[in-house]
Amino acid sequence: MDTTQLAMFFHLIGFGLLATMNVSGWLLNAQYRKAADYKSKLIVLSSARAIGLLSPLAIGIVLLTGIANMMVRGLGFTTEVWLEIKVILFLIAATNGVLFAIRSKKRGGLVAQLAQGSAPGGSEATLASMDRLASVFNIVQSVLLISILILTVWKPGRF
Ligand code: HEM
After folding, report:
1. CB–CB of 44/32 below 8 Å?
2. Where are the alpha helices (DSSP H) in the chain?
3. Which of 35, 102, 140, 142 is the most exposed place for a label (fewest CB within 10 A)?
4. How do the domains of the chain map onto residue ranges?
5. Does pLDDT of 159 surpass 80?
6. Burial letters for 16-34: b for 16+ Cβ neighbours within 10 Å, e otherwise?
7. Can you give the pTM of this predicted structure?
8. Cα of 135 to ligand 1 centre, how many Å?
């Protein structure tokens, strides 16, 4: 395998990790919503957290191998429109993921308090809004990921 092939190999591994995380997000969110009590919800959230811990690795792999893909092809950030939009969408998705991870930690803490019966008043309403946000997050990340994929396959603005 030469450098170009190696960069693409790991780029696709990174993409596979991101896609897996996105699909797991949908499945685990459905399990979380179906869970009958807070203790069961907490178990689902701990699985989601284990998967979420992979995200810095996946983001790092995709970004570094993406830059490697650009270097071996002699592409700059502004050389081709599709790549420019793709990188911007990727950075939005990565930032959104980091912000969601912070909110998820707070949500886990709240569900733990509710499971122990030590949560302050109004926690259920706070949790309901955090849960809504988690569903919106899954939709946004899926739309971003699919848009990135469409741009990559279609490559509008390739000269
Ligand atoms: C979620 C994020 C990303 C996904 C899903 C993704 C997906 C892909 C896929 C499937 C290919 C293969 C396309 C082909 O061979 O025609 C590819 C190629 C490529 N990617 Fe990404 N990528 C992502 C992020 C990035 C980033 C952040 C960069 C740049 C920093 C980047 C730069 C490139 C380049 C330059 C190519 C080679 C395109 C070519 O000229 O054939 N990618 N990407």
Report:
1. yes
2. 3-34, 38-52, 55-73, 81-116, 123-154
3. 102
4. 3-154
5. no
6. ebbeebbebbeebbebbee
7. 0.93
8. 27
